[in-house]
Design a protein that fits this description.
It comes from marine sediment metagenome. The chain has 13 helices and 13 strands. By secondary structure, it is α/β, with parallel strands linked by helices. The structure holds iron/sulfur cluster.
């Protein structure tokens, strides 16, 4: 008997689904792991996607894998070749970039095509989730996948986001023609300001409204830079979502997420007026004054003084 142990049971774990399919096709009994029956299993596979998930209780004889354990373990070829019809999956692996906060370059390497929607679409579902990390980097392949999705009249979710730096008129034209929930992009650093503006212009030109932008925080930015990126998105009527790299207990990021991650609140309030409705004693300027990370990083630079001034002005202005 084979036992499968998903340490984050709310998330679909594709590796475990492949293991399930592999053993089921060989007539094995495959069950969910139950600790009290540990002694009954021939093999136990455990998988985790996140490094912060508690792994202290895992016995020695369990086969572990997934990004939550390490970046090097891979499935044996014959298991990885399984194609469970989960209506979610990858058509490429890897990425062309090497963002320092991201595990994809180390885990998956350079981008390459690995399949298409028929590897994981069950032929019945009306929706499909594409998990590719940077599908726009292989433009012809992206267009092929879009054509398949359109042919099958599916609603698509490019779940991991699209690289705004690779957005062009012809890609936007294709995106406009797709049935979708919303498109996601990321605005990781103020250094990307120009490319973000350009991407928003293209989205507007093709009437692709209210896209969602992941805003990386707690990595190498502080309140000033975070608020400036958010303000740019808000002014251009884009939605935002705070992604915390670190700082789960950081009071600024907690307040910021409470404001930004509910689109209605983000659009309705400035950060200051949001803090007021919450009855929080701190104001935006208190957070800006305690922007130690940025003060250390940019100490005495002209750009930083300008950013602080701009941050104060824009965050206390309604829009
Ligand atoms: S573009 Fe996205 S997937 Fe690629 S390295 Fe950067 S964060 Fe990771």
């Amino acid at each position: 008997m084979i036992a499968l142990w998903n340490l984050e049971p709310k998330c679909t774990n594709i590796a475990l689904e492949k293991i399930h399919m592999y053993y089921q096709q060989r007539g094995e009994s495959v069950v969910d792991y139950f600790p009290l029956e540990h002694h009954l299993y021939d093999k136990i596979y455990c998988s985790s996607l996140f490094d912060y998930t508690d792994k202290r209780q895992i016995p020695d004889n369990v086969i572990c894998g997934g990004t939550g354990f390490d970046l090097t373990t891979t499935l044996p070829y014959e298991i990885d070749a399984m194609k469970p019809k989960l209506n979610m999956g990858f058509t490429t692996r890897g990425c062309i970039r090497k963002c320092p906060f991201c595990v994809v370059p180390e885990k998956e390497g350079w981008i390459r095509e690995t399949g298409d929607i028929y590897d994981f679409w069950d032929g019945k579902s009306k929706e499909i989730v594409i998990l590719d990390n940077n599908i726009l980097a292989v433009k012809d392949h992206f267009k092929k996948i879009c054509r398949q999705i359109k042919k099958e009249k599916l609603l698509v979710d490019f779940n991991q986001g699209l690289d705004h730096r690779l957005l062009t008129n012809d890609i936007a034209d294709m995106l406009k023609s797709m049935r979708r929930k919303l498109y996601r992009f990321s605005f990781d650093s103020l250094k990307d300001e120009n490319s973000v503006r350009k991407a928003i212009d293209i989205l507007n030109k093709y009437e692709i409204k209210w896209s969602m932008w992941y805003v990386l925080t707690g990595y190498d930015t502080g309140p000033t830079e975070d608020l400036m990126r958010l303000e740019l998105l808000k002014v251009h009527k884009q939605r935002a979502y705070i992604q915390r790299y670190q700082g789960k207990t950081n009071p600024f990021l907690t307040e910021l997420s409470g404001w930004v991650n509910k689109s209605q609140l983000f659009m309705k309030y400035t950060f200051d007026s949001f803090l007021e409705t919450r009855g929080t004693k701190r104001k935006v300027n208190d957070f800006l004054r305690s922007d130690y990370a940025n003060q250390n990083k940019h100490a005495n630079t002209k750009e930083y003084s300008q950013a602080r001034e701009a941050g104060r002005a824009i965050t206390s202005r309604g829009s």
